[in-house]
Design brief:
Layout (H helix, E strand, L loop, with lengths): L1 E3 L20 H4 L31 E2 L2 H9 L4 H5 L22 E2 L5 H6 L1 E4 L1 E2 L1 H4 L16 E2 L4 H4 L3 E8 L2 E10 L10 E4 L14 E7 L8 H4 L4 H4 L5 E8 L1 H6 L13 E7 L6 H5 L3 E2 L12 E5 L12 E5 L2 E3 L8 E5 L10 E6 L2 E7 L3 E2 L4 E4 L4 H14 L3
Parallel strand pairs: 4-8, 5-20, 13-19
Antiparallel strand pairs: 1-4, 2-3, 6-15, 7-8, 7-10, 8-9, 9-12, 10-11, 11-12, 14-15, 14-18, 16-17, 17-21, 18-19
Protein name: Secreted protein
Organism: Streptomyces resistomycificus
Keywords: Signal
């Protein structure tokens, strides 16, 4: 639903809660170990790392394999870095799963450019949203999104924003750091929506994709951010995507309103820091992914986290919604999606949905589509196809 143009939560602690607290459902779905007993004040020795230094815009460091892939498509690496990536001609807009390239352009994503990024809604008309009511549960009542507590690095460090460039300009989504089954404790994997990295059936891969965990850590206003330090805007720095995977269902069937690809609208990203050697999980913590694809009737509550950017929100603060999920069907030929009441708007696309499994918070879906009146969100079930995508990413790229 809301994505940025293809179209946002992370944690400072190392572990999710392993028990249900008595302080309410929000604590049961805590995204960090300190989320329910931390304060809004930072504590000594628990401050986010300073933002990494930046080199002049346009300076590029590209692994040989990536440079070779660019050349295979007739793209000059230096020209690409100097602005050639802005060429969105069909013959230059790489679309196949194997064609993803995302060379690091250090200094490109400055705070002011991040703030200029626009959401890319994946909204349905009232008629489309009524899709297949024979399989869909009644439309849920709207649930007003509530602001996440600050600082985000203590309450939702694994959640962040995914920035990228599209033919229409800079865009933004949400994403979540997830664990890497083959590289325990050292994951560099981020979960988001497929439409946050690929345009679907009528386009290709987006460019200059970056993940910023715990963006705007203190939840400052636009006026306050004008004087904010780099560490306050991006407390853990920028993490460039060096490989992205999304489903064939999204690549082939995704559209401006989600299309038949909405039921497969998920993506796994592998990232690396602009500087530093620690993994993303060592930096922010990470969450497990639940691929059991439980029926909506089996789950009492799901929570969605993200950075809504379309009015009445402005994309600067993290919000969340908690609700009992229902079923949403676009077609009898497509997998049923989850649906919850939620007022988050575009920009929240790709943000993780969580549930408690055996006392542990796990990612179970991500925001994909929603209606034009912003009363609910729908996300894909993560079953065998999603698990295969994740496993392949882990085995092929996880150790890089």
């Amino acid at each position: 639903m809301r994505s940025t143009r293809t179209p946002a939560a992370p944690r400072h602690g190392r572990r999710t809660r392993n028990f249900l607290t008595v302080t309410g459902l929000v604590c049961a779905l805590a995204l960090t170990a300190t989320a329910c007993n931390g304060s809004d004040e930072d504590t000594a020795g628990d401050k986010p790392a300073a933002g990494s230094s930046r080199t002049a815009p346009g300076k590029v460091k590209i692994p040989a394999g990536v440079a070779d892939k660019l050349r295979e498509h007739g793209i000059d690496v230096d020209d690409w870095a100097a602005g050639g990536w802005k060429d969105w001609d069909r013959d230059k807009w790489l679309s196949d799963a194997k064609d993803f390239v995302n060379p690091v352009i250090e200094g490109l994503w400055k705070p002011e450019r991040m703030q200029s990024a626009k959401e890319a809604n994946k909204t349905l008309s009232t008629k489309d949203a009524a899709a297949d009511q024979g399989l869909s549960d009644p439309e849920p009542a709207p649930v007003e999104a509530t602001a996440e507590k600050t600082p985000y690095h203590q309450n939702a460090a694994p959640v962040g924003k995914v920035f990228f460039d599209t033919p229409e300009g800079p865009a933004v989504c949400s994403g979540t750091v997830v664990k890497d089954v083959n590289h325990p404790g050292r994951s560099n994997l981020v979960w988001t929506a497929g439409h946050c990295v690929h345009a679907g059936g009528n386009g290709g891969w987006y460019r200059n994709i970056v993940f910023v965990p715990a963006y705007n850590d203190l939840g400052k206003s636009e006026a306050q951010l004008a004087d904010a330090s780099a560490a306050e805007v991006a407390p853990y720095g920028n993490w460039w995507v060096d490989w992205a995977s999304t489903s064939n269902g999204w690549i082939q069937g995704g559209s401006e309103t989600g299309g038949t690809g909405a039921a497969y609208d998920y993506s796994v990203l592998h990232v690396k820091p602009e500087s530093g050697a620690k993994s993303l999980e060592e930096t922010t913590g990470a969450l497990d992914v639940d691929f059991s694809a439980p029926s909506a009737t089996e789950v009492a509550t799901m929570g969605a986290w993200g950075y809504p950017a379309a009015p009445p929100y402005n994309g600067l603060k993290m919000f969340k919604c908690l609700d009992r999920p229902g079923r949403f069907s676009l077609s009898t030929s497509l997998p049923t999606m989850y649906r919850i009441g939620c007022t988050m708007t575009g920009g929240s696309s790709g943000g993780g949905w969580f549930r408690v499994v055996d006392g542990r918070t796990k990612l179970v879906s991500n925001t994909s589509i929603g209606p034009t009146d912003n009363t609910w969100l729908a996300g894909p079930q993560l079953g065998q196809d999603a698990e295969a995508l994740y496993e392949n990413m882990s085995k092929t790229y996880g150790g890089r």
